[in-house]
Amino acid sequence: MRFLSFLSLLFLTIACSPSSQESSHLEVASDSTFITPLGKTYSIALPSEKLQTQYREAKAIYESNPEDVEALIWYGRRIAYLGQYNQAIQIFSQGIEKFPSEPKLYRHRGHRYISIREFDEAISDLEKAAELIQGTPNEIEPDGMPNALNIPVSSLHSNIYYHLGLAYYLVGDYEKAYEAYVKCRESGSHYDNIVSSTHWLYMIQQRLGNPAKADSLLAPIHADSTVIENQSYADLCRLYKGWIPVDSLIQQGPGGSPSNDAVRYGVANWYLYNQDTARAKEMMEGLLETNYFASFGYIAAEQDWIRWFQPK
Questions:
Q1: Which of 199, 184, 271, 207 is nearest to 241 (CA)?
Q2: Torsion region of 99: left, alpha or beta (phi above 0 gives left; psi -120 to 50 gives alpha)
């Protein structure tokens, strides 16, 4: 069951001039709300003008080149950045009908199935993507929202295994999640990839009751290494190494960004590993009061809450 509701549609309204119309409204009918598995309803905010412009450009390029798989992928990615995950899934599904052997389509559709909490579908897509890349050269995956240095830090293979590992983790299949994140870490030598995959590998082994193995997985973490965009994961790995106190990572305020939510979720789990279940519960509950329902930290906390803390 999908948790996106269709309570209302946003359409273009009549404006005095085309320019004012374009700057304040989407050009497509859009989902206006998202209802989480816990019954929380979030409004999908109108995206920035920059995101809307990028979407329109990607749509125009695709419509001019409907047989170009890369144009189709960017069309789907750009509409997903507007919070329109169902529409993105539909676009990627159309692409899969045309290009059934293209792993990138399964990788991106799998990601958006995670966004709407359809984890079995995500696993199916990402397993298919992993199958399709066997024996193929890896490649850098360009960022839709580039970092400050405009240097992509992930690859197609690492992203497939990262999202596959996450999907397994979210359904509680920690052994398969571990295998996927090992492959993720092996798929790229960039330090940003090392810290992101190591964070999940560490948490997984702690959840499996293997603290010594969890600690052994921190070997590639070095104090003098530089990250470009995954600072949240790097900070968590520094916590796991014992280099910084947990208090230094406890955040105040509303949160509501992927990096903030990643830290909050990692710290909540740190308390869980250290037998402070009450503090872990408190922190996960606080995370679930933030406003970015599509972040991986939020979704992971949501699944943990359903599995452990929600009254039966």
A1: 199
A2: beta
Average of pLDDT values for 95-99?
97
Q: Strand, helix or coil at 41?
A: strand
Mean local confidence (pLDDT), 244-271: 86
Beta bridge partners of 41: 35
- The one-letter amino acid code at 301 reads A
Compute the 3-state secondary structure of the chain and give helix, strand, coil in percent, each to the nearest 5: 60, 5, 40
Half-sphere exposure of 172 (CA within 13 A, CB side): 7
Q: Is the dihedral of CA 5, 83, 158, 260 positive or negative?
A: negative
Please tell me the distance from the alpha carbon of residue 295 to that of residue 232, in angstroms, as a whole number: 13
Pick from 269, 268, 262, 273: which is nearest to 298 by CA?
Answer: 262
CA 262/CA 271 separation, integer angstroms: 14
- For residue range 110-120, what is the model confidence (pLDDT) as tens digits? 999 999 999 99
The pTM of this model reads 0.89
Q: Are 78 and 88 in contact (CB under 8 A)?
A: no
- Which helix H or strand E contains 214, and what residues bound it? helix 211-216
Question: How far, in Å, CA of 253 to CA of 224, rounded?
Answer: 30
The DSSP bridge partners found for residue 43 are: 33
